[in-house]
Amino acid sequence: MAVSDPREISVKSPKSSKNGYIRVLGIDPAAAGPTGYGVVESDGRKCRLVHYGALTIPEKRRKESAGAALLDVHALLAQLIEEFEPDALAVEAVFSALNVRTALRLAEVRGVVLLVAAQHDVEIFSYSPREVKASVAGYGHADKLQMQMMVRALLAMAETPEPTHAADALAVALCHLQVQQMNSKFGLPKIKNVSHSLRTLGRAAKTTSDSSRRHPTGAPCRAS
C-alpha cells in the first residue's frame, strides 16, 4: 500500500483534547496527483493546525489494478479519521471545467471520500474551488501561491504549507469552519453543499461590523 511521500509529510502538532474546539478534516481529492489532507480545529475565535500532508500514489501501484489507488486513498482517510476523530469532513467539489476523463477520475476519488465518511459516521460537506478561494483569500480567482500564503497566515504557520495539494486541503477545512461559524451566528441550518450559501451569508454579514463586511463569509480564524 502506498504511503505519504516522506518529502511531503509535515510536522504534526500534539493531539488536543478538543475541549471547546471543532475539528475538521479537509480533503483535496486528485485525479492523478497527490491527494491533499489537512486537519484544522477552531474554538470560534482562532484556528490552529493539527496535521497536514499529501498522499502520492506511485505509477507502479496505479497500474496494479483499476482500484489500487482508490484503495490506498480509502486506507489513508480511514486512518486519519480514526486517529484525529474529526467532527466533520470537508471536501473540494469536482471542478466542472475539467475535461470528461479527468472529471470522472476525480469523481471516483471523491466517491471514496464520501464512502469513508459514511463508514465512520462523520458528517461531510462539499465546497467548490471558487467558494474555498473566496472564503479563505477573499477572492474567488486566487492563485495557488496566494492560497498558500493565506493558509499560512490564518494558521500562524512558520513555513509555507507544501505541497500545494496539502495547502488546498487546509483551505477547504478553513472554508468549512468559516461557513459553519456564520451559519451558527445567523441561526442558519448546516449546509452540506454551499453552491448558493455564500451569497446568503454575504447578505447577512452586511449587518455586522466593518471587519465582518471585509470577509463576507465570516472568519473564526485570525492571523497572528
Q: If you had to describe this structure to a student in words, what would you say it looks like?
A:
This protein has a five-stranded mixed β-sheet. α4 (129-137) crosses α6 and α5 (144-154) packs across α6. With 224 residues, it is of the alpha/beta class. Helix content is 44%, strand content 15%. It has a single domain (6-214), classed as Nucleotidyltransferase, domain 5. Residues 5-17 and 193-218 have low confidence and may be disordered. It has helices at 59-64, 68-84, 100-119, 129-137, 144-154, 164-185, 197-205, 210-214, and strands at residues 22-28, 35-42, 47-55, 88-92, 123-127.
Brief description of this entry?
The protein is α/β, with parallel strands linked by helices and 224 residues long. The chain is built from eight helices and five strands, in the order E-E-E-H-H-E-H-E-H-H-H-H-H.
Task: Provide the CATH architecture.
Answer: 2-Layer Sandwich
Number of helices: 8
Number of strands: 5
Q: What's the structural domain tally?
A: 1
Q: Give the integer mean of the pLDDT values.
A: 79
Question: What's the arrangement of secondary structure elements?
Answer:
Elements: E1 22-28, E2 35-42, E3 47-55, H1 59-64, H2 68-84, E4 88-92, H3 100-119, E5 123-127, H4 129-137, H5 144-154, H6 164-185, H7 197-205, H8 210-214
